[in-house]
Request: fold
Amino acid sequence: MILLSRRHLLRTVGTGLSTAAVGGAAAVAAAPAALAAPRTAPADAVGMLYDTTKCIGCKACVAECAKVNDLVPDTELSGGLWQMPADLNTQTKNIIKLWADPATGQTSFVKRQCMHCVDPACVSGCPFNALQKGALGIVGWDGARCIGCRYCEVSCPFEIPKFEWKKFNPKIVKCELCRHVLDRDGQPGCTRVCPTGAVVFGRRTDLLADAKARVAAHPGTYHLDHVYGETEAGGTQVLYLSHVPFEKLGLPALPDRSVPTGLRHGGVALKLIALPVVLYGVFLGFFRRNWKVHEEEAARLKAEKGLEEQL
Amino acid sequence: MARPASRATPLGVPLGVPLGVPLGVPLAPPHASVIHRWQRGVSVREVPLVTPWFLLFAGFFVVGTAIAAFRLFGGSLASFAAMTDVYAWGVWKTFNVMALTALGSSALAVGLAAWVLGRHRLHSVMRTALVTSFLFYTTALLGLLTDVGRPWNFWNLLLPWRWNTESALWEVALAMPVYCALFLLYENGPMVVEKLWNARSDRVRGWVRTWHPRIRKTYPFVVPFAYVLPIIHQSSLGGLMVLAGHKVHPLWQTDLLPLLYLVQALICGFGSVIVVLMTSCLVWRRPLDVKVLGELANLMSWTTLGWLVLRLGDVVVRGRVGDALAMDAFGVLFLAETAAVAVPALVLRSAHLRETPRALYTMALLACLGGIAYRFIPTTLAYAPGAGSTYFPAVPEIVITLGLVATVVGAFSLVVKRFAVLPAPLESWHHAVEHDSHAHPSHRSDAHGHAVHD
Reply:
């Protein structure tokens, strides 16, 4: 073991610490990002409001969705006779399901499709921004950027995105609020054909006010007098009013803070620049100190045994 | 197995180390440590390259690769995998990438110990750690390539404006190939350069004379970054499941997942290098250096104790002790997984048992299994509980996964027979060089052309 002089030690460790200091400065600069504020919906965010008390389960929206989005209707369960999807799938971006409790006789329809979260987990996790919140806060998919990793399926709290498992060139299929016809029709296919107004399209702020007005006008009708999607997972642009517990409709109880908000604590600058630089600086300092020891051992090995050291 | 019944060993002493030694009997008494001192990587020369075992692993490799190629170039995922929209990640990602790269973190764990913490004794096992890491990472990346549905879009890696710097998966997708293809290859470079020198071609030696000093000059500046990269992406692997939120069972879902995954990678890194070294010594009849192994075990044990403080502290702070002791499927899984990690940590606090091969081998193996379990369970067993959907890997998934593991084992056996990887006493090196010299009587020199002084 070769002992280092104190001065030498100070110098080598100093190298590392000064490099680390640069990273530390970057960390301070990144400090504002460390307090990641929850994201809010864009001012022009649009969405839908679905009200279980108004839905008659006619499924006009399901048929229209397939038509507007050029999807081949899923007729598998009906033996090829009529559209009868078992759940959301790569042919079905929108579905009406029935919940029934045999014990109480209570029933409710529910319309399921992408919730267009204010701060979507799928967008936060998507490695190359294939899923992004675009104009009007609509979460859309871009095939040129998607590597087919299916992290969106893993991270979505509502189990919405579907993957074309059976195709060699698989796509991610989910509701995109008919963004390709919004200019022409002014609204998605499902809301346009709904005969009872069970699902309506509009600005999120307007829909939220509408929903709260309905709750106020019919106290005790809606579960917990709560608009699902106002706060869940940081808020969603599709809102629900229900006369049965939301969990029964497959809408899970979720904390108000979106999961991505929690991950943003510390900020990207801190995580990807400051932390690596600090670590590199510290490792470099110690590495160089130990490298000297290694070199001296190598010299001794060569002198005594005539051997080159091995790295 | 093609192994000569008896053969001369470099030192003329029996080098075989049976693992059947009763627990508690140290194999190498302290006074024998001169003989059993690992100092230098020496290739395995006494055994033929191709053995029946090697053919078995090669067979798994060929079958696995063939199926993976079919999947990649001509088949949908549905025809090869049992994954569903609920269980969208199968064993290629959850086992080969998320669990097994923990075993591939030996280069990180041993490197930090040897080069940063100054545990100089561990330099002798650095090459074993590096080769192990490289093979686990390469096969994980192959698994990832087979798994993704639109692999042609990986070229987005080259377009920084398309990166989602917020995504843990982006970090993994970028940092893992870079770490494997640049840094692990660089770190394994000196071993290859040394081999090239031994090829005794003047042209190649000229090349080595140019490049070897360059590697040595850049080494202290490049390698620290080879520790930063895996620290980032091993923690990102834990971060992946955080985004799944409530779908992961609360016993596993925590904001600490990144840190727990990272520290578990260090534990598995130490564990895997112990298991790889001891298995290699058993198979190829090498002497064990119980001091080096004991030091690795000591580091593994302390790291595990630190990990347990984090893991159990997190469960307590989040108020999940009731779940842990509920004795339902998840509670039992948690207890079993924790025991598999905790028992080795506690047993290996005994210096005596650390230097007892049989105890050490069993405990390191158990720690690796516990670590793999910890990193696998949140992705599959404790993922989306009660979602009404199940996942069990399809046969092609299992065959490809086994093929990737067999590739690690088979390729390792090839590398250690051709390159000076596995540690041995210094005298073995002289023997190895003598062996070369007999083949080339005109060159009595060591690996770098210096005269050998016997």
Observations:
- Chain A has a mean pLDDT of 90.
- The radius of gyration of chain A is 28 Å.
